[in-house]
């Protein structure tokens, strides 16, 4: 498909964007903005986003992404609890930090496990239940997102590396499913994730210097 065809598809699909998708995109952008600022409102806004996207992902036959958003919902509650903890002086207990070598290995193993699990499940489901599924792409977007969300709950700088990978994979994944507004949403999230990485890296360095 040439550029003209892609542009025509974008305009056509944009006209058919549902109000649910608009709300999901808006709350998703707000959630990433709050996470960049290390603001606990990342979780209530994120929960609205993820619950809607569980439904939309099933609608677009993106079963891996549906599992991701269900996982987001569960981990958001866990992360909300961690971020809300305060010491006796009412200061947050959890702080932004960078991962050491052992933690990087854990992250990589976490990603690999979920990639294999999601890819295998989607390959099996594609035969009879979800012929529109794209196992390798959906599994990559899902596994990187699983890893990013897990690390976000722990306020690890490296969570943004995984979010950047998720966004790169999700842009074309949703576009080919004609969910172009969501595809555009992931372009915005990609820019915000890069900004978030810069901001959290700065905060982590400031804390290491102060320690």
- Total strands: the figure is 0
Approximate strand percentage: under 5%
Helical coverage, percent range: over 70%
Secondary-structure element order, as H and E?
HHHHHHHH
Mean pLDDT score: 86
What's the shape?
globular
Number of domains in the coordinates? 1
- Characterize the largest beta sheet: strand count, sense, and whether it forms a barrel: none
Number of helices: 8
From the alpha-carbon coordinates, what is the Rg to the nearest angstrom?
18 Å
Task: Give the helices and strands, then pairings.
Elements: H1 3-15, H2 19-36, H3 42-59, H4 63-84, H5 101-128, H6 135-153, H7 159-175, H8 180-210
What are its keywords?
single chain; 211 residues; mainly alpha; 79% helix
Structure description:
- The protein has one domain.
- It has 211 residues and is mainly α.
- The termini are far apart.
- The mean pLDDT is 86.
- The protein has helices at 3-15, 19-36, 42-59, 63-84, 101-128, 135-153, 159-175, 180-210.
Quick summary:
The protein contains eight helices and no strands. It is an all-alpha fold and 211 residues long. The chain has one domain (13-85, 109-210).
């Amino acid at each position: 498909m040439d550029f003209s065809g892609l542009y025509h598809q974008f305009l056509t699909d944009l006209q058919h964007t549902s109000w649910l998708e608009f709300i999901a995109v808006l709350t998703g952008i707000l959630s990433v903005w709050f996470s960049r600022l290390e603001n606990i409102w990342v979780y209530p806004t994120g929960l609205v986003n993820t619950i809607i996207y569980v439904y939309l992902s099933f609608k677009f036959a993106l079963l891996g992404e549906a599992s991701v958003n269900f996982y987001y919902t569960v981990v958001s509650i866990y992360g909300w609890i961690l971020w809300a903890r305060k010491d006796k002086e009412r200061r947050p207990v959890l702080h932004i930090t960078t991962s050491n070598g052992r933690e990087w290995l854990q992250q990589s193993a976490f990603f690999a496990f979920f990639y294999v699990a999601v890819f295998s499940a989607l390959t099996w489901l594609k035969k009879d239940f979800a012929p529109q599924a794209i196992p390798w792409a959906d599994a990559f977007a899902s596994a990187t997102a699983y890893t990013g969300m897990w690390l976000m709950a722990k306020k690890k700088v490296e969570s943004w590396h995984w979010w950047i990978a998720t966004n790169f994979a999700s842009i074309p994944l949703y576009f080919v499913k004609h969910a172009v507004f969501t595809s555009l949403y992931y372009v915005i999230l990609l820019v915000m994730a890069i900004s978030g990485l810069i901001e959290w890296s700065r905060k982590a360095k400031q804390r290491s210097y102060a320690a």
